[in-house]
């Protein structure tokens, strides 16, 4: 099921792996594999990518970065197919993403001549980009009667669903708030009235989709295999300026 009505669907550059993700999910539908198993799979894929980056196997690193992105989509697809959503899986996915992102950037810093400060600022920029994309995307879905299972920002610990332990939800939600809270607050401060504005056009959402994690990992993969490892961190640091461009467009016209 699409998250948006047909007329509001946009080309999402970060979601290129969705067709393969659906194939993987369908192949696991009648097995004992759960969405959390797939999440563990993308964690393993990400760790392999990090090892390959550090050891100089950039083509393999690119493969596992993209495979990680595909599995990142497949876990949610499998949860929907099996009709077994869980907050444990929801927050484990997000916590794993941000930790892996930090490790990706540290490994790239290790093999390049960039300073640790460029690494840190680029990572912060990467996360701000992803937060803005999610912010606008969830608002859009709520405005056009699309999928409303996601909230713009997470504030309160949810009640565990059937089949999961509340203590697991509590721990993972606490980690989620710790790791993402500052980014959520920053984006909300920059554009607190976004939900009161007009529906964002498809072309603008397509541009903002370049902030999605799938596209970010694709850019890293391409730059690694093209021998541009020294430019990866400066690219993401510089591209963070587009956060203010997109927010400015939203405020001026929508």
TrEMBL record:
Family membership noted in the UniProt record: Belongs to the CDP-alcohol phosphatidyltransferase class-I family.
UniProt keyword Transmembrane helix, yes or no: yes
Gene Ontology molecular functions: phosphotransferase activity, for other substituted phosphate groups
Species of the source: Pedobacter psychrophilus
Superkingdom classification of source: Bacteria
Name of the molecule in the record: CDP-alcohol phosphatidyltransferase
Sorted UniProt keywords: Membrane, Transferase, Transmembrane, Transmembrane helix
Biological process terms in GO annotation: phospholipid biosynthetic process
Any single Pfam family the record assigns to this protein: CDP-OH_P_transf
Membrane-crossing segments per the record: 36-67, 115-136, 203-225, 231-249
GO CC annotations on file: membrane
């Amino acid at each position: 099921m699409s998250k948006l009505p047909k007329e509001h669907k946009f080309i999402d550059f970060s979601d290129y792996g969705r067709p393969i993700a659906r194939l993987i999910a369908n192949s696991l539908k009648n097995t004992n594999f759960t969405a959390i198993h797939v999440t563990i799979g993308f964690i393993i894929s990400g760790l392999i990518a990090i090892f390959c980056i550090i050891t100089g196997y950039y083509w393999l690193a690119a493969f596992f970065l993209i495979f990680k992105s595909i599995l990142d989509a497949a876990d949610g697809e499998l949860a929907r197919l099996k009709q077994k959503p869980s907050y444990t899986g929801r927050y484990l996915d997000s916590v794993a993403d941000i930790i892996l992102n930090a490790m990706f950037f540290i490994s790239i810093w290790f093999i390049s001549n960039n300073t640790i400060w460029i690494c840190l600022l680029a990572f912060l920029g990467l996360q701000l980009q992803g937060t803005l994309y999610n912010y606008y995307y969830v608002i859009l879905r709520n405005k056009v009667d699309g999928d409303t299972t996601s909230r713009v920002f997470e504030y309160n610990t949810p009640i565990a669903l059937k089949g999961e332990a509340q203590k697991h939800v509590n721990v993972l939600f606490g980690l989620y708030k710790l790791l993402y809270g500052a980014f959520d607050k920053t984006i909300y401060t920059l554009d607190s009235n976004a939900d009161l504005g007009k529906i964002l056009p498809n072309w603008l959402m397509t541009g903002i989709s370049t902030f999605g994690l799938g596209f970010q990992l694709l850019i890293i993969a391409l730059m690694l295999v093209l021998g541009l490892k020294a430019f990866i961190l400066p690219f993401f640091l510089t591209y963070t300026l587009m956060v203010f461009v997109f927010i400015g467009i939203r405020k001026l016209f929508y």
